[in-house]
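Teaching note: in complex prediction, the entire set of molecules is handled at once rather than each chain in isolation. The prompt given to students was simply: 'Predict the structure of this complex.' The entities are:
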Amino acid sequence: MTNVPLLSVEGLTMRYGTRTGCADVSFDLHDGEVLAVVGESGSGKTTLLRLLAQELAPDAGRVRYRMRDGGVRDLATLDEAAQRLLARTEWGYIRQDATDGLRMSVSAGGNAGERLMAIGMRHYGQIRGAASDWLRRVEIDPARIDETPQSFSGGMRQRLQIARNLITEPRLVLMDEPTSGLDVSVQARLLDLVRGLVTELGLAIVIVTHDLAVARLLSHRMMVMRRGCVIETGLTDRVLDDPEAPYTQLLVSSVLAA
Amino acid sequence: MTHLPQLALEDVGKSFTLHLRGGVRLPVLSGLSFTVRRGECVALGGPSGTGKSSVLRMVYGNYRCDEGAIKVRDEGEWVDVASATPRRIIALRRRAMGHVSQFLRVIPRIGALDLVAAAGRDSGLDFEAADARARELLGRLNLPARLWTLPPATFSGGEQQRVNIARGLIGNHPLLLLDEPTASLDARNRAAVIGLARQRRDSGCAVLGVFHDAEVRAALADREIDLGRFTRVVAAEAV
Amino acid sequence: MTGAIGYNFAYLDEQTKRMIRRAILKAIAIPGYQVPFASREMPMPYGWGTGGVQVTAAVLGPRDVLKVIDQGADDTTNAVSIRAFFRNTAGIATTTRTSEATVIQTRHRIPEGRLHEGQILVFQVPIPEPLRFLEPRETETRRLHALAEYGLMQVKLYEDISRHGHIATTYAYPVAVEGRYVMDPSPTPKFDNPKMDNSPALQLFGAGRERRIYAVPPYTNVRSLDFEDHPFRAQEFAEPCALCGAIGVYLDEVVMDDRGRRMFVCSDTDHCETRRAAGHRGGAFGL
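The expected output is the structure of the full assembly:
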């Protein structure tokens, strides 16, 4: 295990006109670490995620990433082709709305296998085999490999998104509210799946959520955001059990206990 | 190996600021210093409200430490939990300290045995060893085998507590933090927990605990630290 | 050799032809790349070859000999009217003989006989973007071409195999040009794909409604996309042409009567006629 962080974020700032999307956000993320970003809607969580994914360009600050060869690169200095290659091999991005993250008219197998084809795999049998294997790992019956996600439930769609992203064994996965809108039982199954994959594959994850229970269950560390600023950061159980900032105390005390 | 210090608190202070109550500040402790050596069990004593659980939580990194240092030995290196990075504390929890809290935090869909074994794997045991050790612990804690595959959410308080104890003990850490480990247990299971904790202490583990039950305290603790002496008597500061 | 009174040679004004020629030159310089051009209104509806006609108009000279085919035939409505259009507006010679033509405008076929150097084959293209099937955003498909990200094209073929057990795309079968751009060869049957590879003729593609021109220069590598375990295969026909007995050519099914009698004949009418003139006979000859 190296001591160089996989992802190193420094002073990331982004404004939408006069409104702040994200202000001076800095953190390191190591292999196998799960960082939860929590906060209410409009707190800048998703902006941060899109900045990390290079989908938005920051007004200030930089994101550095440790490549597979060990070299650390400022992502803004990579050309578009290199960025996109990273995005489909080294990273995953699980969208809140599965219809944004899947090709809804393409079969489950085609969705799961797309990244393999994108990196040049040209053997139908192997692609299908890998897709089928990943469907099984995310608890989708491989017999449904030729169905389109249109016929899938919300939970299955999210799991298919995970299979589609993880098939190239990325090292970093960005997740945007992956469990919102799912029934609690379906949510539990998905979280269980993600927990398993984190341990099994040593994934580093940045998960954006407004659900503190999800953050507690999945993450090692937590970052509380409000109006684009990081209010508090630390070990997840520390932030939740001994919140320091007034806003964090309010957030924690507002959760309904089941 | 034994008798070396494993944990050292130096001038530790802690208070809570309740921002939702107009910023009122609740002092808990100040000036707390003590050491726990390997092979020794130290009980935290004092009336309720003196911050006994808080001290355990601060050592584990679960509560912030406002003043002083909390040093835990990790493979020849002293780590100050009060100032360590979250990543360092996570590593410390994996390798150096086990914590048995008062309440089990259940994880949906995960059975009791898996929950315990996962804690073992976290602390470095391989899959088979973690599974075997989890079975052994749950057996010794008299958790009926029919419950092992079930998620503990529906278990009784005593059953959940025993799963929690197994989770805390499986890692064989050199420092063990026990927060009322026998609170909801009957005499037979209390004896089982005492047996397990003693065994760990006698094999060189440093144990720091809160034991309400005088019998348990007498059976385990080599000495007691009365936190009443360190409790802050400062009045809540005017806002 | 003058055209109809009141029209410029080959209908389009010279400035427009220069604009189109510039697009064609760029297309030739970047084989398989779709070059945008300012497509003009033509005196025929979209879908009737307005793109092909503009390309033909831009490359025609007074000494050219034009052949126009539709589905391989010289005598179908579309072919007849486009041929008449250029005869009237450019006053040039026309032919049905593939070997005599210098410019061949085609819809949906490539002639059977090998083309020769100096010939220009002009394709009419309805939808030039091969990735459109899976990616509706033009901004995104352009980016995919720019970065040569063609996994999506493979997804389309994957979907074919998963649904039909084989690559069921039989026309507009995507090709990689000179190992770089992936191109839609227009709705020609995949049977003709191998003819595009290393052809001595210049191949130009015009899409009028979509305003795109692309090209395959002579002797360019054109490879049909496929999978290692599902290699590209052109259609094969079980029987020879019923009229000329040719084998290894693309056949059309012709219904003979209302009692279900049918026969298969060469889709390339010139090829069939040339063979018959040379004495070749199929099973149905003389019926």
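Point out the following to students. The longest strand of chain C covers residues 65-70. Residues 51 and 206 of chain C are 4 Å apart (CA to CA).
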